Amino acid sequence: MSDYTPAATGSGARARIQRGGAFLAGMVMPNLGAFIAFGLITAIFIPTGWINTIAGTTEDPLPITVQIATLVGPLISILIPILIGYTGGKLVHGTRGAVVGAVATIGAMLAPVALGLASAGLNGAPAAEPPTNISEVGPAILAALIIGPIAALVLKLWDNFIAGKVKGGFEMLVDNFSSGIIGGVFAVIGLYVLGPLTFLLSQGLGQVVNALVQAKLLPLVSIIIEPAKVLFLNNALNHGVLTPLGATQAADQGFSIMYMLESNPGPGLGILTAMLLFGPRAIRPTVPAAMVVHFLGGIHEIYFPYVLLKPILVIAAILGGATGVLWEVIFNLGLVAPASPGSIFAWILVSPPDKLALNMVGIVLAAAVAAIAGSFLLGFGRKESAVDESIDLEAAKEQSATNKKASKAPTQA
Description:
The radius of gyration is 23 Å and the shape is globular. By secondary structure, it is an all-alpha fold. Helix content is 65%, strand content 0%. Helix 2 packs antiparallel against helix 4.
C-alpha cells in the first residue's frame, strides 16, 4: 500500500473489510492534493466563488476568473480519475501496473460521452441530455477505483506467468506489448462494460442520497460513521464511498454534503470538551493540547483514545454528528472538495462563500450537542472518584494505536 496506510494484520470479516477499505483509501489519499487544488480553484474562481462574490460580479464574472475556471471540469473529470486509476495500478504492480491502470481508466471515463448515456433527473426533473464533452461528465472515480487495480492485477499475473520464459533481448519488446495490449483491452472493457455500469450505479446512488436528503434521513448515517471513525474504519467509508459520491455531486451542483459527513471536527471537539470538564481528573490536563491538534490540525485520531477510555461517549459522537448533518440538510449545505485534514481551516478553505457562515454554525452545533451529551454520559463529573485518578490514558492510546494498525492494509495487494 502507500505510506498513508501501514500494514494490517489479522483475519476474519472485519480484517478483510479493513484491508479492503484501506486499499481504497490508499488509492485516494495520495491524490487528495489534486482534490484540494480542484476545490480551491472552484471556491475562488467560479462565477459564485470568492473573487466574484467580493467584487460583486457574480452575474457578470471577471474575465480572468472565467479563464481560470475552465480548469475545474478537466481537473475533476479527467485528471483525478486518471490519478486514482494510476495509483491503484501502482499499488498492485508498480509502475507497469500504474500505466495500464491509467490507460484502462480512460475507457471508463469516456463511456458516457461515447455511448451517449443520459444523466438521471433528480427531484422529479426530467433526465438530462447525454453529455457531449468529457468535462460535462461526472468524475469516473468509482470506475477508476475498480478498473485500475484489476487491469494491473491481470498484467501482474501475465508477468509472473512468462517470468523466465522470454529469450534474452526480447524482454523489453514483450513487456511493452503486453502492457499495451492489456491496457488497451481494459480500456475497451471500461468503455463498454464498467464505465456504463458505474455510471448507472452512481446515478442510482445519487437518487438514493437525494431521497435521503429530501426525507431528512441523511443524519442517520452518523450511526455508522462515528463508531467507524473510532475503530479506524473511517477511510473505507470516507475515501471509498463518500468522496466518490461527493465528487459526482460537486461536479453537478458545485458542492456536496458528502464531503461533510465524516470530516466535521465538531463531534470530536464536543467529546474533548466533555472530557475536559467532566472526564477523569488525571487526564483532564492532556485535553487542551488534544483539542488544538484535533480542531486546528484536523487530526481526528487524537480524540479516539478518549472515546476508548469511555466507550459510552460514542453515543455523544453519533448525536453530535447527526445534529451537524441535519443542519446541513435543512440548509442545503456542502463543501466544494474534501476537507483534508478535517480541520476548521480546511472547512473554511473549501466552503462556498455563500455557505461559509452556515457551515461554521453546523460545526458549532455538532460540537455543542456532542459536548452536552458527553457531559451527561459522564454524569457531569459525579461519577468520578479517587479510583479515576489512576486511569491510564496510555493504555487507551495503545488500544487506539492497535485499532489503527489493524485497520490498514499491507504494502502490496
